[in-house]
Amino acid sequence: MGYFSRNETERLTFPDGQWVDLKRVPSQGDADYVAGRMFAAGKPNLLAGRLPMMARMIVAWSFEEDGKPVPITEDMVDTLHPRYRNLIIDKINELTDKAGEWLKN
User: Fold this and answer.
1) With left for phi above 0 and alpha for psi between -120 and 50, is residue 80 left, alpha or beta?
2) I need a surface site. Which of 1, 48, 51, 80 has the fewest CB within 10 A?
3) H helical segments located in the chain
4) CA-based Rg of the chain, rounded to a whole angstrom?
5) What is the pLDDT of residues 2-33, one digit of tens each?
6) What CA–CA distance (Å, rounded) separates 92 from 33?
7) Is residue 6 classed as helix, strand or coil in its secondary structure?
8) SS3 35
9) What is the helix (H) or strand (E) element at residue 59, kind and residue range?
């Protein structure tokens, strides 16, 4: 484990062979950005943080269109098929739970 979380990733491979690399730990900037989105309307909206968290936690993926890599943007993450999206959300929840446990110790 290094001093900085930016280089720590974990690969999630899907049954069809596609994959995404996820940050193991969100940065402070990630957490602040997502919190800002969740409280943008003045009251907490937890669902408003899901899409920006996914877009910020994904650092690489294997998805291509017309033989070219698909950029990782909120718009592209938003259009992911649920067969990928749901597994990514589950993995991010698992990773952020682990990060939270590490911070408690």
Assistant:
1) beta
2) 1
3) 28-38, 50-57, 74-78, 82-104
4) 14
5) 677 667 899 999 999 999 999 998 888 888 88
6) 16
7) helix
8) helix
9) strand 58-61
